[in-house]
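As a warm-up, study this chain.
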Amino acid sequence: MKILSLLFTLAFALFANDGAHEFAPSKDCQTCHTQIYDEYYGSMHANSTPDKDAIHKVIWDKHPHNTKLEQYSCGKCHTPAANNLDKMLTKGEKAMPDVNNKTHQEAISCAYCHRIQDIEKHKQSNTNIMSKTMKSYFSSKSSSDISKENLKESSYHKIITTQNEHFKNGNVCIGCHSHNVNQFELNICSTNENEVMNYANCVSCHMPKVKGSASTVNDTKTHSFHGFAGAHFNHEMLEKHIVISIQKNSDDFNIFVDNQTSHALLMHPLRLAVLKISVVRANKTIELEKEVFVRVIGKDGKPAMPWVANEVIKDTMLKANEKRTINRAFRIESDDRVDVVLGYFLVNPVALDSLGLKENKAATEFHLLKKESFKF
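Now compare it with the structure written out below.
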């Protein structure tokens, strides 16, 4: 029995330390991937922890798992490189975010993303399946690509050249960014409007090719942007996916807002987008009624936190591939100029007070996404 017990203990130890939750620190990548490293450290991937993201923190502070001092259930996507991630996700265990734990502060690290071997699709949320091999990473290149491009191998790590479908099709992000369904079967946020596993390419829009070499080992003219264009940072990279046009009628006019993305304009239920419309006539600016795009979740007809919400109270958000028509009963005259501004708030202004974010710049700032002027 003692031998069996010893064998079981050894087997458990080997499994527990198989490298699946041990990741090289992102700092190790800086020497060879200088520009990518700088981009990454200015992204939400590097700043997704409660102590780095004030908006996430106020929500986490109210979460029942936090108030009961149990476990950081958000860690699955916000601190996936944590060395105690298993405890964070295991009922009955206690594992809270720790500002002094270096693996927690790695947030969504370089090594974590590049060791995603597969993605399990589940109803509530997807799960990333990690490679257990330290310092062996996946990329979008196959062995034949590397051979054709005469690329050198890194002395620090190797790229697993067996083609990984998730890196190849650009949907390596869907382990975390696909959907999040709560206990009441309400989809809190989703990149897929129809809830069908048929995704557009995440990388092509959010990691576009930019100038600069991917590494010092292999000199390339461009690389995939690792600042991850999104609502928090680098949103100006996304404006080309929104097209705004105008139609003048005899007594009114239409503004067309064409969302050419495969998901809603904004997905997080805290967000609120605003279309500002003004007419400049003889050096005088006439402000017209704003158009608001929002999705509010709640309970009993009132806004509520994601873990208790069981209904969508209001949804005027631009849907995937939707071209919305906004009419204004205003007659445009010759020499008028119509200015249209589309922007958003990371936090719906109505919720600022209850969340204690009225003085927070990130939460209250109006982010400009697109601006167009039409002269008549």
